[in-house]
Amino acid sequence: MKNINTVVIEGRLTRDAEQRFSNAGMSILKFSIASNSRRKIDGEWQDDANFFDCVILGKLGEAISPRMKKGNAVIIDGELQQNKWKDDSGQNRSKVEILVSEISIYEKGGNSGDAI
Q: What is the pTM for the complete model shown?
């Protein structure tokens, strides 16, 4: 049996993406998106923002880095991954990120989106 780990989210970039390179020269592009949800509570509609940390590895991240600006709308397709590490005090830490495999970017100002 194969496990399913698929995420599709539409949202806006909360900040400009940060690009760095591994020791081996691979691009690592990190960014965060906010996606709003709406639900009815006690007869009243309430909007909630959800925030997701995302990462794109390799040439895709390198190619789109200049277009990843705060406020741009994106649709991402990827999978969840959990990173684990020990902090400076030796405590175990973990963080769930979305490893993005496909992305569509809709820049501010009405430019159409390109699926990448």
A: 0.83
